[in-house]
Amino acid sequence: MTELEIMQRAKRYMDNLANGIDPLTGQELPEDSVLNNVRLSRCFFYVSGVLGQVIDNGGTVGAKKRPHRQPFSLTAEQYARITPAEIPLTITQVVALCNAEIDPEAMKPLTSTPLTAWMQENGILQTVAQGSGHNRRMPTARGHALGLTEEERMSQRGAYVAVLYDQNAQQFLIDNLPDILSWYEEARKNREREG
Prior knowledge:
The chain is of the alpha+beta class. It contains 7 helices and 4 strands.
């Protein structure tokens, strides 16, 4: 008998006990039996529920482990389905367009980090010190020529400048995404070798 089968049998026993039935004989427990006590019955229901969760997890105690997800990648058909928005988007929204094409259970989602790092490496974005002591990535002259703009916005923490990507800039990133991901993976491997 496997561990899972033992758990399933134990759950059946707990279910029977919780309902006032002797799990070995199938007979109702006498009213005066300690096993027919209301407090014990609640305990049996609780234990049965816990066993049910463990059984649902394939016999594993705790949360079910997520299967290993593949790194982000798209097929040619998936790339072709990504349609840039007619309105300017933030980099997070551009990334969301790409992530809409994947199965998040099977694949890790794309983040903005590879895109912004690649754009900085290629002179599209630059790091600019802000008055608050923080650094922000802002468009260069090349970035503006590609369709990046800046817009002041308000958040709960106050005013900030958002970098927006027009339809042309969005398409540029989508078209270059395979090269961006290859460059970023190579840069990651180099950092690991050096570190």
